[in-house]
Amino acid sequence: GENVEQHPSTLSVQEGDSAVIKCTYSDSASNYFPWYKQELGKRPQLIIDIRSNVGEKKDQRIAVTLNKTAKHFSLHITETQPEDSAVYFCAATQGAQKLVFGQGTRLTINP
Amino acid sequence: GAVVSQHPSRVICKSGTSVKIECRSLDFQATTMFWYRQFPKQSLMLMATSNEGSKATYEQGVEKDKFLINHASLTLSTLTVTSAHPEDSSFYICSARDPPRGTEAFFGQGTRLTVV
Asked: Does the first or last residue of chain A, that is N or C, have fewer Cβ atoms within 10 Å of its Cβ?
């Protein structure tokens, strides 16, 4: 089955700087890669996703890149703000199958 | 996006009792729902896939007789934690997709279960 590895587990950046979180997956059949932001005690919120037929996707300050050959994808947050502080999870799935999550990254934005 | 509602949001129960958690898709029909468990500072781990009108599919290591899943309608799946113990204390969260709206998974609010 699918296995998703996420790094780093914690990340601290200065406000205004960029943050990058990386994930690798094992199942070459996976074709959908969402990223979630989760605040304490809350449900995960989808912030961006990418499908395997696309190499990069951007939404304002957030971007995701996908390298199918290497089986890794990354989340990029630019111009970070204090409200970006949260736990971020990557995930992978094939079609409408179950999501397999990475271990999570606790992102702290320092003012 | 689509709405998935989970109830209750918090529950405290005594050891040995059972607790039922409901997951409803409010504006779409869900033939499949997923149940996850999240321990503090850990990731979401899939427990089981709930299939409307048939038996749930459990992940390896998840006791099907302890975590009973019922998906009797296209808008409701329930997870019952039977004979709960303190180690079952966790954040339980369900999700479902609405295929006409794409691949995005929609999550319930989660249920914080504390077993005392």
From this structure: C
Beta strands in A1-111 (DSSP E): 4-7, 10-14, 19-25, 32-38, 45-51, 56-59, 62-67, 72-77, 86-92, 100-101, 105-110
Nearest CA in chain B to A4: B43
Q: Which chain A positions have a beta carbon within 8 Å of B49's beta carbon?
A: 98
What sections of B2-116 are H helices per DSSP? none
* Among the partner residues A43, A100, A104, nearest to B109 by beta-carbon distance: A43
SS3 call for B9: coil
Is residue B4 predicted with pLDDT exceeding 80? yes
pLDDT of residue A1: 86
Give, in degrees to the nearest 5, the angle at Cα A71 between A77 and B59: 95
Whether A95 and A32 have beta carbons less than 8 Å apart is answered as yes
Q: Which of B21, B29, B43 is the best residue to mutate to test the A interface, defined by the most A CB atoms within 10 Å of its own CB? A: B43
Interchain CB distance below 8 Å, B44 and A44: yes
> pLDDT tens-digit profile of B10-60?
999 999 999 999 999 999 999 999 999 999 999 999 999 999 989 999 999
Q: What amino acid is encoded at B101 in this protein?
A: R
Whole-angstrom distance, CA of residue A37 vs CA of residue B59? 24
Parallel, antiparallel, or unpaired for β A105-110 and A86-92?
antiparallel
